[in-house]
Design brief:
Helix content: 55-70%
Distance between the termini: 31 Å
Shape: elongated
Number of strands: 2
Number of domains: 2
Number of helices: 6
Structural class: mainly alpha
Strand order of the largest sheet: 1-2
Radius of gyration: 19 Å
Order of helices and strands: HHHEEHHH
Mean pLDDT: 93
Length: 113
Amino acid sequence: MDLLYQRGRASAADIRAAMPDPPSYSAVRAMLRILEAKGHVRHHVDGPRYLYVPTLPRESAKRSALRHLVQTFFEGSAAQAISALLDAPSTNLSDADLDRLATFIERARKEGA
């Protein structure tokens, strides 16, 4: 999906060529068919090729994926998800990052979220 968002549209061969350690061509095609069946991409016929495009803007897809992740792994709790991110040893937040998070938390308090 990231490659499709970067390029706007791409064939299975284009996607495979851009991958660092690509699976087989048929595996890429199979994944694109699955993504299309789920409504994440659609295709247009361009001569003998199918060109795939994302169906949602990247921001909408990110929000949807994050909601699904929080629901699946954190019992729907944003607080649990955020705690897991903050507790991860690899999380290196700068002072600016922490200030930004504090601003979001304060805004959520004011809005009653």
